[in-house]
Design the sequence.
């Protein structure tokens, strides 16, 4: 799955989190970093959105993702 596909799923699953100025970056397999620069958005920091399918996805803060990742390695 491309990162553009993952972002499309993010927009479908969590549309209320989107503001006008959302930026996403690749973050590994089936994952993107999402950051919103819109002052009206409900979130301000960088999050990691991982999507495998409609019943298997996650949205985490970057710090939580990194802590969890470091425990798994």
Sequence:
């Amino acid at each position: 799955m491309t990162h553009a596909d993952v972002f499309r799923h993010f927009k479908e699953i969590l549309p209320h989190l989107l503001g006008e100025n959302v930026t996403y970056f690749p973050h590994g397999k089936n994952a993107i970093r999402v950051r919103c620069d819109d002052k009206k958005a409900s979130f301000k920091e960088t999050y990691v959105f991982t999507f495998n399918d409609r019943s298997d996805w996650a949205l985490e803060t970057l710090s939580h993702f990194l802590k969890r990742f470091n425990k798994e390695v």
In short: The first helix runs from residue 3 to 13.
